[in-house]
Amino acid sequence: MIKSVVVNISRLLLSLTFIFSGFVKAVDPLGTQYKLEDYAAAMSLDGIFPTWIFLCGSVAMSALEVMIGIQLLFAINRRIISKVVLLFMLVMTGLTLWIYISDPVEDCGCFGDAIKLTNGQTLMKNIVLLVCAVLVALWPKKMPRMVSLSNQWIVFHYSLVFIIAVSVYCIHYLPIFDFRPYHIGANIPEGMEIPDGAEQPVFETTFIMEKDGKQEEFTVDNYPDSTWTFIDSKTKLVKAGYEPPIHDFFLQDHEGDDITDAVLSHPGYTLLLITPNLEVADDTNFGHLNAIYDYAQQKKVPFYCLTASEDGAIQHWIDITGAEYPFVKCDGLTLKTMVRSNPGLILLKEGTVAGKWSNNNLPTLDDASKLQAFDETNSYDAHNKQMWLYILLWYVLPLALLVLADRTWHIFNTLSTHYN
pTM of the predicted model, to two decimals? Predict the structure, then answer.
């Protein structure tokens, strides 16, 4: 009895973790792609594989994690899946041990942008899950099936189609759940603020000094006398302090002036075309973008194109699209965080994100009332509730009805066999 309880607690913990981890990756495939590219760069493999390889890897990874979790939850292929989970956790624990020791990335990306874990926290999490995986692998038959063998294929294939469809939808449009600090309803200036009393970062400066042809390093506490000659200094972060959710949002116009405050404090609406890398930006809808810019000009709505590309790429974009809108320089990572589309469009209302669109579903701006309605119809909470309702109706409810029908039929057959 105790063995069965321990195994099924482990099974539940593993399955929910895998489903959650895979799902938050599936709703943000480009974010997972960027994280895989970070890992490749840390391993000196950047530039070897094309971008689409990382994107396909992102979709495959999210689907794999969700399917492992679903099979554990429903006890599908119990013996095989228990061994797969154990192998997966052995590999991931080894990987996170390397990450913890060498620190190639700040965040492993296990839970996308939904939950941020330090490398130490990630290692501890994987050790706990590895123990659970060992228990499940030792006694797989202690996991009771939730559906009969004859109906397990329905759960498996329906789940696989659903999670891949979610990823494809989020690639074509935008993530159905936005866990980043630039989600609809977020106020960018507020996201840049540091609260009073917040912990400040601690830095240590070392001075390299020379005397009689010999160089030595000194700190502020033991700084030498004037007989020493200053050569160089180096500063390192000793203890991290509070970092606001938005910390790299800086806009610079073509003359090199900082226009960040001017854009964020503008009364009324502002349209931002986001394109981190113009060299690979999708130019198929440039006519629509130009029309939106013309509309903005008519309604006296400021319109800027934010990019991290150099002047040559900007000029090439102008040549092929006929763009007349002004270009503003911004950090590339920040732009990738703002919207998962290249290009993408953001509508600000006095520094607050009022709307976001990918290049594949740009808004139709045909009258002034459309702008005024954007921030009312794009409520962050309302959007999330709607997405959860869709998931409930299209995935959870059908599987729940399947389980109910399956178990009812199983009980009916058992009773029929007993009384006959």
Answer: 0.87
